[in-house]
Write a sequence for this structure.
């Protein structure tokens, strides 16, 4: 004898509920939060370093850094640049979850922070499934990864709110067809807000910073 | 490794709805936008469900293809990693339309009126 019990529940509904909690908390505090996602080596930490160094005099910044191990190099780099940083060891998980962000918030001086940068685990598949409560999901891509990434990771490109294309200083040295890349992006996410920049040279960085300033102002 | 956390979340949903009853079967829908692999979920399931009311429960998957809806003509077509053009009118891309979620649809538990 058996009985069928109807369920129809999204597997990640519990995570989504915590993400909504995190968002409400941030909104109550007037903190603007971005979730930075990328493959390993695309420049998440470099972009954070550049951003913190440029904005620290005007916007108090907090940072949550997710890593699959206890190695806290990235959080230290953020701290050195001038952000209040918390390192989250995901214990091998290849993405951050909303509960990890909720718990990390307790370790940050939230009353002083206006902008929260969350550095997700380097991975183009899983982080997109797990909402964190951030106001914007940002994908950092780099020309060194190749122009085929929108075609290979369509869910990531379709789901993000902002795209940063990093390492544009390398364009003369790599076989990156910018047209093919942007065509894939446009196919999956028409009109996506995009910034093309180089964390190494600083080219194009100002537009990104100005966007963050504007979002942070509006969150207050 | 990617499916470990999602399988745990799946088990949590199943045990919540089972209300302590022994679970025989779990009907799951996996949208292909998620990128989850059935075999990996099965593997983690056996480990994670051990010692719970869902130990030994069979997973029945229904896979939904990842689809885009053409912005020009409305045709729904699969994302197969090639060109992202609508096969009907040739326009570029579209909005994600179907195959984005992973849900537990129903579970079969021991006891009650059924077979």
């Amino acid at each position: 004898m058996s009985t069928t019990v109807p369920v129809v529940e999204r597997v990640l509904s519990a995570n989504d509920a915590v993400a909504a909690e995190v968002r409400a908390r941030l909104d109550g505090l007037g903190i603007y939060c971005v979730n930075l996602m990328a493959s390993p080596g695309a420049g998440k930490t470099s972009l954070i370093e550049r951003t913190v160094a440029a904005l620290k005099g005007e916007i108090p910044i907090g940072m949550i850094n997710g890593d699959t191990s206890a190695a806290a190099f990235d959080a230290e780099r953020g701290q050195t640049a001038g952000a209040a940083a918390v390192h989250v060891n995901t214990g091998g998980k290849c993405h951050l979850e909303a509960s990890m962000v909720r718990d990390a918030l307790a370790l940050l001086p939230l009353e002083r922070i206006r902008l929260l940068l969350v550095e997700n685990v380097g991975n183009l598949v899983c982080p997109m499934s797990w909402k964190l409560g951030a106001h914007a999901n940002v994908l950092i891509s780099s020309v060194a990864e190749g122009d085929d990434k929108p075609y290979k990771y369509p869910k990531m490109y379709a789901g993000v709110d902002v795209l940063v294309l990093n390492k544009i200083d390398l364009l003369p040295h790599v076989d990156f067809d910018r047209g093919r890349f942007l065509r894939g992006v446009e196919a999956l996410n028409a009109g996506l807000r995009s910034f093309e920049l180089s964390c190494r040279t600083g080219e194009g960085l100002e537009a990104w910073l100005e966007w963050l300033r504007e979002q942070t102002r509006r969150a207050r | 490794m990617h499916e470990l956390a999602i399988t745990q979340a799946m088990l949590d949903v199943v045990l919540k709805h089972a209300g302590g009853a022994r679970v025989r079967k779990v009907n799951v829908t996996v949208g292909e936008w998620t990128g989850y692999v059935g075999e990996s979920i099965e593997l983690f399931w056996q480990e994670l469900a051990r010692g719970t009311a869902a130990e030994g429960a069979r997973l029945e998957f229904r896979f939904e293809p990842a689809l885009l809806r053409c912005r020009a003509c409305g045709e729904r077509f699969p994302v197969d990693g090639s060109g992202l053009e609508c096969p009907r009118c040739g326009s570029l891309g579209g909005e994600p339309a179907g195959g984005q979620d992973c849900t537990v649809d129903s579970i079969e538990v021991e006891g009650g009126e059924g077979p």
About this structure: The radius of gyration of chain A is 18 Å. Chain A has eight helices and eight strands.
